[in-house]
Every structure is written in structure tokens, then in C-alpha cells.
Amino acid sequence: MSTVQTSMPAQAAAAGEPSFWSRLSGNRNWAAFWFMLPTAAFLILFLAYPLGLGVWMSFTDERIGRAGAFVGIENYQWLWDDSIFWLSVFNTLLYTLIASAIKFAIGLYLALLLNRHMPFKAVIRSIVLIPFIVPTVLSAIAFWWIYDSQFSIISWSLIKLGVIHSNINFLGDSTWARASVIFANVWRGVPFVAITLLAGLQTVSPSLYEAATLDGATNWQRFRFITYPLLTPIIAVVMTFSVLFTFTDFQLIWALTRGGPVNATHLMATLSYQRGIISGRLGEGAAIATAMIPFLVAAIAISWFGMQRRKWQQGSNND
Amino acid sequence: MSSVQIRDVRKSFGNFEVLHGVSIPIEDGEFVVLVGPSGCGKSTLLRMLAGLENITSGTISIGDRVVNNVQPKERDIAMVFQNYALYPHMTVADNMGFSLKLRGAKPEEISTGVKRAAEILALTPLLDRYPRQLSGGQRQRVAMGRAIVRDPQVFLFDEPLSNLDAKLRVAMRTEIKELHQRLRTTTVYVTHDQIEAMTMADKIVVMHDGIVEQMGSPLELYDTPANQFVAGFIGSPAMNFLRGAVKVNGAAYFEGPNGVKLPLKSAPANSDGKPAVYGVRPEHFTIADDGAEAEIVVVEPTGSETQVFAKLGGEQVVAVFRERHLFNPGDKVRLKPDPALVHLFDDSTGKRLNS
Q1: Fewer CB near the terminus (10 Å): N or C of chain B?
Q2: Strand B186-191 with B31-35, pairing
Q3: Which tens digits make up the pLDDT trace of B198-214?
Q4: Residue A99: CA count within 13 A, CB half-sphere
Q5: In this structure, what DSSP letter does residue B258 have?
Q6: With bands split at pLDDT 50, 70 and 90, how would you rate the model's confidence at A11?
């Protein structure tokens, strides 16, 4: 392992001071750098640069087709006084919190169910994944029909059953519209949560449950004292991702409601698109998108502290 | 503490029967070892005793109570698992106190119970550690501590030492035996290692293919194995078996492979010419002028004894000598089994023929 380093001084003494380039290409620490370079270049080009550009754009008055001038925090001042922007912030938080909570509850329940022995286990597990595989826009269009004000199958069924007498205006009423998009998001997001938690459940050794059974634990106590604590690390990961995906959701909303009715379902992402691309005010759109960053960082920070290596987990030092 | 009665217990998984009517009486305070090759049903039987597997037919009772339909937690048993099954997210103290906590014991009560068990097992300095911070032997002791805390009627051990290295296994063997001598709790211990069975048990139950081959004290099984399976399973190195026939021609003797003449103290009645298996333990060979000629193949000195592999009538046998012989491969020696200590088994059924 140390052969490279030990032989270097000998060579250097013989051939005089090695060139800067040969030191760069021969040194072990630099070798690591060379190996990282392709990935780093890729990430910088396609992630860091657009992000930086977006943030920079939010400080300009750039429009489509016209280069912008630096205007400082003017865009943010505008947004601060913009009630629609604040409505979209509220909508986004509401959408994220409710949808994530429901996704977690249903996902965990499904995972526990799928972890049991049952016939056709593999088939059922694959079926659960279907909502996740279908392209978002495709499922959004399906939901669009399901929620249609005239042809909705839900309204039709309920009328036939005699529960209601007129069609429900799913996407036309602000409360119904919010509930509808949240439902569609939950439907899409549950498989991810369920399958990931199922993977977590399968890492728990069955003998722990047997030991707990002999120790006198009931079903609930087995969940509370064994399953749940052992699952917390994976819950933290999966819920972080779920929150990030939900917070930044765009496709589903745009396909279903375009933010309507009366901005009741406008999320920050859709508002940003509408202001930045449709209305052409790139600077303002970028400012809305940039305003999402603190929320996302906060979500990551919470889960980071939540996920911090628990003392009992493998791999860290004894303490 | 209480006795355990296993009566004609059967177990099937679907159509496949793995236990074919097993009956084992276990006395109060007895240390019983179930031993047998893997797949013999010993672990299944233990799990049935714990309540982790259903009983297909027959009864198991603990004390005076038939427990066939009693929930595991109400059976008042504690089990030590092969992989210890320690809760990774709980400290040693929490692991040991978990059952008391579930029973709704007060915190002081739990900590007293845990401390008492920790003292018995010298775990007191480790109470705040997590399982991953412990060595294999320490984990093993915590698993036992978890069992002791509950002060159960019966201890069950499922191959508890098989994940330890050889040296630790010997140490823990002694520790478990000592613990049993101290607590006198009825114990059922499953292992595939006949040395563990011999050294620890009050009573050994040898199982094979879902039946009990023989039950008895370690030395009973060693001295008078009921059949060829038990004879071959108990003892290390294993007993030598030579096929041949009993001859009663004036004095009784055994005609082994290729006409080798081997001594018999007496022949069982009406056994002249009967095909049989001649069993002799490696340590029951002596070098004598009237022994059968054998050619040495390999010599393995272990320091305390010498294991000699030799060809006797074309068959490989192993002999163990306490005294140091300077043999070389290819040497001819005369091996003589001690006629008082040889075993005769039926050639077809494997049942013991001599008393």
C-alpha cells in the first residue's frame, strides 16, 4: 500500500525535483480526485449550475427573450406582498403535510399486511407497485376523468346508489379540489412508502418476534417495542423522500387543475411555472422556486437529525 | 420449577411428518439434552415445548397442566435462541427487563430483578451497553440473563453455543452447567454436539429422523448404546464398526472382514453364524501379541493421547492410546479389542445384541 509513497523520494533524489504534473498524476490523494472528477463534473453541470443560475435569476428582472438586470431582492419584496404567493405557500404546506401523513399511515399498514404469510404474496406485492409505475401524467388524466364534473364515475355511482342527487364538482370547488389532488397524490405515493417499509420490515429477524412472544408481548406490544423502533431509520429516509417529492410536486396538479379553482390548488412549483414560463417573468418565477429551498432544507435538516445514527445501530464507535 | 411430560407427540408440516410419536419424561430440576443430527426434529420439539409451533397430536404438560393450547407467554418458560435474539435497540438492562416490563412490573422491581440476574452472570458492568458492543460470549450471557430474570418453570436452550468459537464454547458449557447446579431449574437443551450432551446432561435423549433412539444418563448411553446409531453418535472419535458374523466354535468369537478373528466374551444365545456388526470404541484397543494384525495408515499425536488410524482386515479403524507409541505409517501392529467392552449389533436392525 505504501510502496508508491516510499519509492517516490528515492526517484526524486535520482532524477531531481519531479515535475508538477508527475506529482499530480502519481500522488494517491490526487488519484482520488481524478476518480471523482467525472461525477463531479456531471453534478456541477446538471445540478449545481442550473440551481445557481436559478438563484441568480431570482435577483434579476429577466423575462423570456430579454436578458435581465440585477434588481436585488425586488422580486422577493413583490412576493412578500403577494397574497397569491402566500396562498401557494399555504397550499403547498397543507398538501405536503396531509398527503405525507396519509401516505405514511396507509404505507405502513400495507407494509405490515404484506409482510405476513399469505397466498400469492409475490403477485400481490407487485400489484401494489402499479400506481408507482404508471406515468404521472397518465394517472393524472385518469383521475381527471374520475373527477370530471359531468362524467365522474364517483358521482355517477353515488347517484345510482341514491347517496347524492347531483354531481359533485370535484375540481371546481376549492375544498373538493384540494381533497381530490391530495387523494390522487396519496394514491401515487403509497406504493413507494409501502414497498420501502416492507423492505425494512424484512430485515427484522423473526427470532426477535419469537423472543418477544415468549417474553409475553401482545401483537401491539411487538409492534410498539420491536418493529417500530427497528424501523425508525428507514421511516426517516422514506418520509424525507416522500416529503421532498410531495413538496415539489408539479405534474399531477398541472394536469388536474392547473392551480385552480381560484388558485386553491396552486402549489409553489405550479405558481413558479405559471409566473416564470407562461407569463414569461423568469425572474419572478425563479424567486418563487428559490423560496422553496428553505422549506426543503428544513425538511432535510429535520430528517437528518431524526436519522442520526442511533447508538444501537451497527457501525459507529463504541461509546 | 416443575416437571415436563412429553407424551406421544407428533408433528406434521402438511403431509410431511417430522416427529413420529415422541415421549420424554422430564423430572423436576433435571437437565435434559436433546441431541441428534440436523433434521432429526429436536429443534421442532423444543419449539413445540415453547409454544412457537403447534402440536399435531399428543400432549405436552408442564407441571400438572397440559399446555397444548396455552399461549407461549402463559407457559412460564424462557428460551435462549441460537442467534441470541437480543433486541438490538435496547441496552443489556432493558433486554433483560423486557419481560418484566411487559408484565407491568414496577421500575424498582424490574431493576432489582435485572441486578440479581446480572450478578449471577457477572454482567453488572455491561448493563448500559447495547448488544452490538458485546462479544459473542457476553451476548450469550445476556440471552441467559434474560431467561433468568423471569424465574421461569423451565429453561429452553436452542443450540446456544453453536455461534461461539471452540474455546469459548467449552467455557460457556461449564458456565451453563454451573448455573443449572445453582438454580436447579428444569432445563431442556438442544444441541447437535454430542460432547455438549455428554458433559452437561443429567439425561440425554438421542433423536434421529423424528424418533427417540435412546434415553438415559450420559454414561449409560456411552457404555450400553441401544443400537448402532446411538453407538456411532455418542463418543469421539466415533466407535469402529466391523461387519461379519458371530461364531461359536467352542469359544465364541467374531469373524470380521477378510476372516479377521476378534474376541467376544460370550455369544448371545442362538447366534452361531449370525451376521452382525462388531463395535469397539477407539480407546478399547490394546496392543497385544494375540491381537489381530493391522497396518498403520496415519498417526495423529494430540499430546495427551495418540490417535492411530489403521487397516484391520481391510477396513479402516481408529484406535486411541494414552501411552506414547512411536508408530510409523506402514508398521504392522497387533490390535486387540477388550472383549468385556465390545458391542454387538444386529446386522439388519442395528439393535444391540449383547447385554
Answers
A1: C
A2: parallel
A3: 999 999 999 999 999 99
A4: 29
A5: G
A6: very low
**B168 vs A: CB within 8 A:** no
User: ipTM, 2 decimals?
Assistant: 0.82
Distances (CA, A) of A130 to A92, A139, A227, A252: 26, 11, 26, 16
Please tell me the distance from the alpha carbon of residue B6 to that of residue B15, in angstroms, as a whole number. 22
- Hunting for cell 499430546 — which residue is that? B303
Residue in B89, B129, B155 to test binding to A, most A beta-carbons within 10 Å: B89
Distance to chain A for B132, nearest Cα, Å: 7
Q: What is the pTM of this model?
A: 0.78
Cross-chain residue pair A311–B78, CB shorter than 8 Å: no
Name every residue whose Cβ is closer than 8 Å to that of residue A57 and which is 6 or more positions away in sequence.
A68, A282, A283, A286
Tell me how far apart the alpha carbons of residues B147 and A319 are, in angstroms, rounded to a whole number.
27
Q: What is the mean pLDDT of chain B?
A: 90
Minimum Cα–Cα distance from A314: chain B residue: B132
Place of cell 401516505: A103
Q: What is the tens place of the pLDDT at every residue in B229-247?
A: 999 999 889 999 999 998 8
State how far the Cα of A248 lies from the Cα of A263, in Å rounded to an integer. Answer: 17
With beta carbons under 8 A apart, name residues in chain B contacting A229. 89
CA B27 to chain centre: 18
Question: Between the CA of residue B64 and those of A113, B2, B79, what are the distances in Å?
Answer: 39, 9, 20
Nearest CA in chain B to A206: B85
Show residues of chain A in contact with B93, CB under 8 Å: none
